[in-house]
Amino acid sequence: MTDIRKVVLAYSGGLDTSIILRWLEEQYECEVVTFTADLGQGEEVEPARAKAQQMGVKEIYIEDLREEFVRDFVYPMFRCNTIYEGEYLLGTSIARPLIAKRLIEIARETGADAISHGATGKGNDQVRFELGAYALNPDIKIIAPWREWELSSRESLMAYAEKHGIPVEQKRKGKSPYSMDANLLHISYEGGPLEDPWAEPEDEMWKWSVSPEQAPDEAEYIELGFENGDAVSLDSEKLSPATMLKSLNERAGHHGIGRLDIVENRYVGMKSRGCYETPGGTVLLKAHRALESITLDRELAHLKDDLMPRYATLIYNGYWWSPERLAIQALVDQSQKSVTGEVRLKLYKGSISVVGRKSEKESLFSEEIATFEDDQGAYDQKDAEGFIKLNALRLRIQAQAKK
After folding, report:
1. Of residues 129, 101, 95, the one with CA closest to residue 281
2. Is-catalytic flag, 179?
3. Mean pLDDT across the chain, nearest whole number?
4. Same domain, 213 and 259
């Protein structure tokens, strides 16, 4: 790619991407544009501007994408009750298509020839970034330094930084125990002691939640209001998507909710042990399913459940912009037109209990029919006999044949 004149780099301001910045300039003799996204990771992103300026970068993008992230990515995903491999709420996965989208848009705005990222050749993120980028611009050139350079350890990175005068953080004592990634939906922990799947995580590792043992002895009740499948109010107060998730993270984390320790199957083929904190997302999914239980037709709800694992895998593997994900999303969004109402939940020592659900206009639950008391003729129990016999017909034929 000797024709590269300008590259847009997904830039955090940390050691890795600072080295990548200088490496791109050196190896490709190109200009580098930096892009830093605030997705609610809980850290200041503005220092990345000063670091980029210090390294001579002329075009610097620092963007607050929190509302777009939750509104256009997290909420659509949650309409499908999406969980990967039965447990993982896809906090890292769902952030990547938005970053890929902005990388492509900034490349177009600045006339860049290529984009670059700091994902390694072992992980899922390289796939997610690049599949997203190619889906949005099939002609874009992508530079993944970890697949090209010979820098393979923190020591080699530090030596490169010292040689090229790259400003880095003061060295911490010892090795950082975990690789962490955070946004408004979750914070993840990998590496270090977690590479042994038998080792229990130290309680000091968790940042967003207390342990259930240390959570308050008194339960907290909250009420979530939904419109068309999206949470819009908390205890009757209207909140924007990002504010909603931030508030739920704080309240659920206070009760030790949302911790997860799993071994997942990466798209590149290996198994990886990771720990996650997703307090607000865990509450949202629980509440959403509760509201769907009274507002969705049975077969439509079951169809969504059938599609969900496929949908989750598409997001995990980086196919957010694929035609099949968009088609499933259209079906899911159609199903959510009736998912409007309120859910009451109890938060207590790491658990969430649904204690109430209602929908004034969309509920399909009929107390008159479901009651164990006198139903005033709303349901004729004799009808069940023919229903059972018709459904038993094939079973009786099979049994007769065996007999």
Report:
1. 95
2. yes
3. 94
4. yes
